[in-house]
Structure formats: structure tokens, C-alpha cells
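Follow-up to my post from last week.
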Amino acid sequence: MNLIIPDLSLVVLVGVSGAGKSTFARRHFKPTEILSSDYCRGLVSDDENSQAATRDAFDVLHFIARKRLAAGKLVVVDATNVQPDARKSLVQLAREFHCLPVAIVLDLPERIAEDRNKARPDRDFGAHVVRQQAQQLKRSLRGLQREGFRTVHVIKTPEEVDAAVIERQPLWNNRRDDHGPFDIIGDVHGCYDELVALLRNLGHEVDAAAATVRITSGRKLLFLGDLVDRGPKTPDVLRLVMNAVASGSALCVPGNHDVKLMRKLRGRDVQVTHGLAESLEQLAAESDAFRRDVADFIDRLVSHYVLDDGKLVVAHAGMKESMQGRGSGAVREFALYGETTGETDELGLPVRHNWAAEYRGQAMVVYGHTPVPEPEWLNRTVDIDTGCVFGGRLTALRYPEREFVSVDALRIYAQPSRPFLAPEVPGPVATAQQQHDDVLDIEDVIGKRIVSTKWHGNITIREENAAAALEVMSRFAANPKWLIYLPPTMSPCATSSSDGLLEHPAEAFAYYRQEGVARVICEEKHMGSRAVVVVCRDEEAALRSFGVTGEGIGTCFTRTGRRFFDDARVEADFLTRIRDAASAAGFWDEFETDWLCLDCELMPWSAKAQELLKQQYAAVGTAARSTLACQASALESAAARGIDVANLLARTTARKDMVAAYTDAYRRYCWTVDSVDDLKLAPFHLLATAGKVHTDQPHEWHLQTLARLAGGIIITTPYLIVDLTDPDSEAKGCAWWESLTARGGEGMVVKPSDFIVKGKRGLIQPAVKCRGREYLRIIYGPEYSAEEHLSRLRSRNLSTKRSLALREFALGIESLDRFVRHEPLRRVHEPVFGVLALESEPVDPRL
Amino acid sequence: MLMTITSTHENATDLGFLLRKNPARAQSFSLSFGTAHVFYPVASPECCTVALLVEVDPIGLVRGRRGSADNGRPLEQYVNDRPYVPSSFLSVAIADVFSSALAGGCKEKPELADLPLPLTVELPALPCRGGEGFLRSLFEPLGYTVTARRLPLDEHFPDWGGSPYSHVTLAATLPLHALLSHLYVLMPVLDNDKHYWVGEEEVLKLLRHGEGWLPAHPERNQITRRYLKHRPSLVDDALLRLAAEDGMAPEEVADPLAEPDEPSGPRHRLNDQRLGSVMAVLKTSGASRVLDLGCGEGRLLGLLLKERQFTSILGMDVSHRALEIASNRLHLDRLPPPQRERLRLIQGSLIYRDERLAGFDAAAVVEVIEHLDAPRLAAFERVLFEFARPGTVVITTPNREYNVKWESLPAGRFRHRDHRFEWTRAEFRAWADAVAARFGYEARFLPVGPEDAEVGSPTQMGVFTR
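User reply:
Got it. Predicted complex:
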């Protein structure tokens, strides 16, 4: 005996105590699928038979059932369920989650249950209890369908129990195994000629007279419904679609017009409005058989489809995430009519709730129903009803290519009740997605978050870090539309044990060699402030690509997303120079782009860190110089008196020298900035251009490409390629570092020659820094180089820093990837926000 | 750090007896944070100078977490003035190395102990947080002649101006123990930063070393406050870490909760008037569910809680720290449940759409918008007027025109370091009217604080209703 149940259903077992429900459930379902009321009684009271705990037990049962149904998991409720009230709440639950309630009734002879209960010492209730339950069950049997159970299976004998086999059936809307590719076609409304033209444009062979289409490209047609009404050739459209569906070359979902027509054809009382009259008139010329076929065809259509492993959902009026792949009356309503607020507008039309604006699902949703002048993406949804019957166009979306193919309407067949073609607006306007993205939602950033990245799997953002990032983002950051990337932190090389040194390239080279990297690039580390530059060709491009207006042609921001220049005019001057350099170098054509994102160092350090320099570095320097000078002279006087202070004097003199070196160190990175001319910008990554993140290019390509921008305020970054399998080459690398740092330079950054390198255990450090001995005074203190200090400073732990560097690196690339894929801003913002949140992790700031 | 004390009393080398340190030798003393050295650069009958040189171990300072009450300040830990300037470390060294002299004893020559001596103290880099005026106001009432030469921040960059440090000499005729007591108490006061956590014990120390002079000192309150009270920063550690990534000094992360530079007299009155006006509007609006957006430390929330009319109050701030303070100030954990249930505090941002803000009758946004970058106002407007959409919105913001009335506020400066703009009345009205028109509200305007015929009131308030 096969019991068929939908694979997402709420299975309600019905039977008296001792009927064998639990045994039945255990035999046919996974333990995790079964929610037993007895077990829940035990959970809340330590006694599986406590009747006093019933109420709490069912609260727990319902709670778990909700969680499972929300996640799309089958639930089996193992309780007597003989009373209508108990079943009613379960049917409601199933409705709420748009899944089908199924009743499996174990209606066995009473004796069997009584005997079983007697054999169980924990069931000491009298036989009258079972008798009462049995009466309730009998009264219930006939009404189960009416209560809302779509499927009812009744098992009457122990033999039937033994023979029962549960067969799980996928829902009709589940076409996950169908991978397409598809040509998805919007509302046709009887526009047969346009449909034929569109199918031909798509490369399919159409026999217009026979209403057949032959598809040789392996593609499949997907019709979004509203085939009928208003237009001139509804029967032809129906014939073609029915033929295509019958031959397996098309799928079709119903539209509200189709359903209304079907109801009329079936003799139901419907208002003949909104173009139904035309359909009926045209169909009057057809045979009875055809009309019957049409009604049957429409009646059998499935409200929506989930295709391609769940990556694509199609429905006439759209489908919100919580309803996708589910079956209920509400799901069907949504598929046909979308969501309305219950209000009507000034034209008497229902006010539509914009479900797409709130859509957060992973699946792409393609729909029609509401005529729009242009198909526009919004949160991975797109409406492709371009109003052919109203004189617009008939549009198809090619999936997975995401290309639109349209044909113009041959004429206006009907007047829409609301004009759908927007008046021509001069110049570009922000897209629906960009307008939607004007405001981000707090739900998408606060609390504990898990961001999935291509290069480093799932990255967890802790709640307290997100809280800190929210404050910084809100108080200081630039317009989030510009923030498509934040740079990762960078770890230093392992600590050197060489005399007088904390860092040396030998450790960096050793690290990469051990990770299997043969070639590295050493780049001079400019001592300035990290800066990300986003620059567009013009303000139109800023609107087109970033959805930003009135904020110039780009921006330049710091590691935490703060705008670098407070003065908009200075920023404009700065960006114009970069834009002009890009124009002169021919970047726009070469990269087929109208914007660039550059990762840079901006000098001098004092331009941004002025206050830090003054309040911290300069202040400590002046106090130290004054004090140590007085200490030395006091000691010299004492020594002149013949007091033995030789050791102390020698130490004081050494300290004086170290403080002088410290002062020189910070002064090197300061100069007065009166105008943009006094700035220097050293770009070192050409991170992204339209449609492309350049992480597939080696670093040398980046430096050589960016060198073409050099001139004016833009400078190049000197570099050296080192072959780690060649000791001579490595020695040259070390020597280069020596010469850079001997001149007081900050040091260098060592990177694998490729941008992204995966080692044995996943990503390896994208870069490590080797800082110069003098520079480190401003990090570790003026006197750090004294051996008694240095020996202690050498014990430092890099592991947290390195782990952060990898996670932030992966997040940075992720945000760029998402941006060039035109994902909604919240998806781009998520990893950007993640970098900022990770940066608030407590880690030794000197690393 | 270095401190010298010079005596020109007859038989100046008697200083050695008072200090119990032989002028003919250099001595070293081990301290918990480093080493103190005592030696005499000059020792003649006419003039005797003792030097107290303290070497602070800069690494131990950080690694042992000792001495860093303020460990939320990244980078400051190693690049630190502590080894070079007098601070509470010097007080500890004085108490340790010159303990008997500080206590007023002198075994060999007891008659010297209480004898006023002509003494000069030299401090090569004394932090004067509060300025030279404050330095003088501390020492001059005690009879010192103060000479201070402010150290430049960096002679290579003269436009950077002066540093917080001065080369200071203090001359007075006083018993040595009095001078040492003054230094013991006043070094940390000038530094305004103590290297150990302040506890009960510190009160006793202050009373002991301030005996006989502190009670009558005109700056007594300031001295006590600075000596004892380490005001915790309202700025989060995490926030400071992020700021450091940008090369910002901790002071630059202006604390938005700090009081603005409105003159101290009428300031509190103005704040009260502001909250009073907001309450008046909220009460007459008939609202029962209210939002306080940017609630800060919760002053308005406290007033709202007192009114039964407001059955549901939501306080939101972007600063986690502010919410903690609000929660403590309002004693949320101790309120009886019916009160407690009326109020909810959440972290949130005015530029992110937030479902939790929907369904309220009224919203107060008191002295908040001026903390937003002007280009971000567009997001704020939609978050509040389009998505949260309360029936009544009350917004207050400074009236820039009024700033001229405050002499203490330099022309052109904002009232608060974190203000991104301050609007004239016309600017505020233009903005408010446009917002009201766009989102279907009506705006009206009310003055807050004393109204001047020419420049209006110090605070301006817009009331939006729909």
C-alpha cells in the first residue's frame, strides 16, 4: 500500500493511544522529522505521560515545527490528534508556511490499542480513555478533507500497517533538475505576430501557420503567463504555447488573465472586462474541443517553477522567498496577482506592494504582470513585461546569460489604465536598483553575520565588531555607494633574530618559499596613508556605474571608509588629475570602462595624520629632547665634580641619539601641504574596472600598467622581482631593502608575484611587510633599538594579525567581485562592512 | 624624567641632610616601573643642586600593562612621553626616595626640617595640560615664582606651534617637605593622567600630602578632581582602534556625547529648555509611542519615562557605549517591570533603514542632525520620514546665527568638534520645508532658549506633523 505525500508536507498522525503511531513513524521517517507530543512532555516535565504538561509540550512541538517548516523540512506530528482543535492549529501552521497538511489515520480495532497499553506499565490510564479517543476519531474521519487536509490516508488493519510504504513526491513546481538554458518570455496577451518575431530573433524555427516552434539549440522556452486577452490573436498564441509545452520544448506558468479565461470557459461567472471579451470573441471561432483543451491546459498549469538547482524562479507576478517551491492557495494567489496592500489608488487600481524591494533571496526571480517601460533588475528580480499589447515591446530574457531580447509591438492594441511608458527624461537617471540602494537596511549589517566569500569560505563577523563598525560607518564613512572596497590589514614578516633588527626580508622570503612560492615581488613601501581612489570618467559615469549624483566624479577614502579630503574642491582637483592621467593613458578604451578603482598610498603622512603627528610623535620628541639634554648636562656637571656617573651618562647619551634618530624618522614623512600639488599618490593595484576585478593579473602587471599614469602628483612604485630558488636573487632582494632603509625608507612589501595564491591550507598571505630599523622607532618607541628593549620586543605573536589579513583580503575581493557583477548595494556593502568590523578586533597595533 | 632642586641657603649642602642623600655619591634605587638615580651636579656651600633622575622602562610599561590606565589608546603605548616627563611616576619616586624629607623629618639637623629655605625646582619638560595659566594658578598661590618656557612641538615645523610641555622653574622660600608635598600632589594634576587606578587609598594620600595647604588653595576643587578622578572616555576602545588605522589621534575621535561649547553658565539651562520644549511638543501631540533617535546618555528618555502618556519608548543611538551609560543612568536593571517594559534601548543608525522604528506616533531627534555629514542627510530623511514615518517629528539643531552671542566661542567655529555643520535659521527652514513637502508633512518652527531680536534663539526646533 503506497501512501503518497508531497515532499514538503506537515504529516499529522491520527490515532488513539496505543494505535502504534510512534512505531509507524519510526519505521517510515527520519528521527529528526518526527515531533512526538510524548517526547515534548518529557522535555518540559521529565514525564512523558504528564497530562499537566500538555500545553507546554505542544508549545515546544509547535515551535520546532515552525522552525523546520520555515527551513523547508518535512514534519511528522506524532500525537493522538483525535480532536478537531488539535488538528486545526496544525492545519493553520501548514498554511502559514505554505506547505500541504497530510493526515495519516491509524484506525485500528480498539482491542489492539487496549492490549498494547496494558502491556506498558507507564500507561496506567483506564480503558475508558482509549474508548473516548476512539469515539472522537470516528467522528473526525469524515471531516478531515474539509478541515483542510489535502491528502488523507486511512489505515485500518495491522496488515495494512505492515504493508504501508511512504512515497514522497516532489511538488509540481520543483524543476530543480532542469538547468535550461532558457528563453523566458513575458506577457504575450494575444500578440502572436510579435511572439513569432521574437522566437525567430531568439534563433528558433517557427511555423506560424501551424503554430509550432522547433528548437534546435537545446534551449527551452518559459512563458510567464498572460498569454491571452486584449491582443488580436489569442487562439494562435495559445495554440503555439500548448504545442510547445506538449512537445516538451516549453514550460508555462499561468497568469491572472489565463485563469480568468479558463474559469469563464468552464462556465463560471466572471466579469468580462480587461480584454476578456476579445479572447472570447476570437475563441468563438474555434472548435469546442479546442476551447476544452485550452481550459484543461490552463487548469493544469503550475503556479510557479523553481529551476536550475533553485537558482531561478519564474512566476507570472513574482514570488517572494518564503513561498518559493511551496504549494498553497496563498502561493498561487501571489503567483497570479502579486502582493497588494489592500488599498486602491486614484485610478481605482489595487496598490501593489513592492515585494521585490524587500527581496533578499538567493534565487533570481523573473516575472511579468505589471507593464514596465524597461526591464530593470532589483535585488535579483526582474519584471520583463514590457507592455507589448499596449504598444511597447515583447521581451525575452535569456538565462543564464541575463541578456534581454525584444521586438517592438506592431501597433497599440489596447490602452493601459495607467500610462506605463514614462515620459522621456533628458539625460541618464538612476536605475531602480540604484534608487533602491539609496538607503541600506540595518538588518543587513548588525548582529552576528556570516559572509560567504569566494576565496576564504564563510567569514564570521562577531556582533560586537559589527556594532563598532556601524558607529564608524555612520559617523565617518563616505557614501556607501562609493565604498566598493576596503583594503586589508597587512602582517609583518616573522621576527628577525639578527642583531639590532626586528624585521628583515630573509624571514619574508623564507615564508613564501615554504608556502611553495618561487617568485615574489618586492615593492618599496611608501610612508603615507593608505588611500582607495574611485574615479569615473565624468559625472554621468558616476551616476551610471555608482548611482551617485552631485558628488563629483569619484572619491578618495581611507582604510576605514572616511573621505580623505574634507574640502570638496580639493577632492575634485585631486580626482580630476587622476582622471586626466587615465584619459591620457587610454585606460577608458583599453579596459572598456568608465571608472577605475585604485589601491594607493597617499603622501605625505602628515596630510591625514597631522594631529597624530603633532599630539603624539612631535610632542614625545620635544619632551624627550629637552629632558635628555638636561639629564646629560646634569650628569656632566656631576662627573666634573668627580662623582661616578659614567654608566648613567653613557646610557643617557645613547638615549639622546636614539631620540634624535626618532625625530628624524617622523620628520621624513612630513611636509607642508598647501595645495594638491604638494601631494604624491602612489597607486599599486588597479583593483577593478567595469565588469572586471584584476586580481587575475600578477603584481608586476599592476605596477607596469599603473606606471603609465605617472607624472604630476602620481608617482610609480619601485620594485624588484626575486627568485626564491636562487640565493643570489634573494641576496639582491635583501641588499635592496638594506639600501632603502639605510636611506631612512619605511621598508618594503613582499608579495607573491601572483595576486591570489592558495597554498596547502588555503589562502596564503597576500603580502608581508619588512619595515626599516629607523622607521620602527615611530612604531615601537624612540628607544626600541636598545638591546634590553629589543630582546623583549622580539616575542610577538603574528597569528591573529595574519588570520585577520587573510579574512580581510578575501572580503575585499568579494566586495569588488559583487560590485562588478552589479549585485545590489547591500551585497557589496556586506563584505565592506565586514572588513571594517574585523579591523575593530583587538590586535597588537604595532604589527 | 628629571627634576632638580637647588638650595642657596647658607651651608647649601645641608640639603643632603634633609634628603638623607650624600652629595658626594650617586645612588640608585629600584622602583616597580624602573630605576631612580640621585646625584648632585652642584654641591658647594653657596649652592647645592640635587638631581632626581628616573628611568622608566618603556617596554615594561606596556607589556606588564602597568602604568597604562588608558590602554585603549593604540600606538601611544610605546611612543609615549612617560619616560621623559614628570607625572605620577615622579610622585612615587619622591615618596620612595625622599620619604623622610617628604614626611618632614631630618634626623641629623632637626632644626632644618621646618625652616623655610630658598629653593628652586627645575623641570625640563613639565606637561601643563590646562596651559601656563593653570600652572601659575597652581603654584603662585603657594608662594612660588614661576618661570615657564613653552617647548615648541618641532622646530622644523614652526607652524605646528607649541607643545603641551614647558621648561619650568619654580622658586620659593619654603620648608623642603612643603615643596615636596606640593610637587607630589601637583605633578599628576598637571599631567592629568594617573598611572595607576585611583582607589580609596589615593584619597588618604591626597589628604595627607595636602595637609596645611590644599584646603585653602583657590584651585582646590580642580586639584582634587584631577588628582582623584580619572574620567573614563566615552569613546569605545574599538572605535579608537579603527581611528588609529586612519592615523587619527585619539583626541580627534570627538566624543559626540561631550557637552558642546555652549557657555557654561546658561548651558545647562539651555539643555533643560531644549528638553522641556521637546517634551511639550511630544505631550501635546498626543503620542503614546515615541522614538528618541540619537538618545545619547538618555536625558530625554528619563523625562519621557516620567510621563505616563508615553507607553512605549524606544531609545536609539549609534554608540554602544552611550547606550550602556543611558542604561546605567536610568537604572534600567532596577526599574519595576511595568516601567521597564515601556522602554527599549537599541543600537542603530540614522542612515540605515530600520524596521524597528516603524509604528511610532512621534520621534524626537535632539541635537543630532548636525553630527551627520551633510551628504548623508538624504539617507536620514528617507529613513525617518519615508520608512519610520511617525506622525510627529521634533528636530532640534543649533542656530548658527546665535554663536556670535557667545564670546567664548571663536568666530566661525562650531559649538562642538564633531559638528559637521551648523545652520542659520533660513538654512534650517529651507531644509525642513523641502523635507516636509517631499514626504507629506507640515513643518512649523519654534525657538528654544532666549530669543534675540537679531539672531534668534540659540537652538532652533522644527516640528513636523502629517
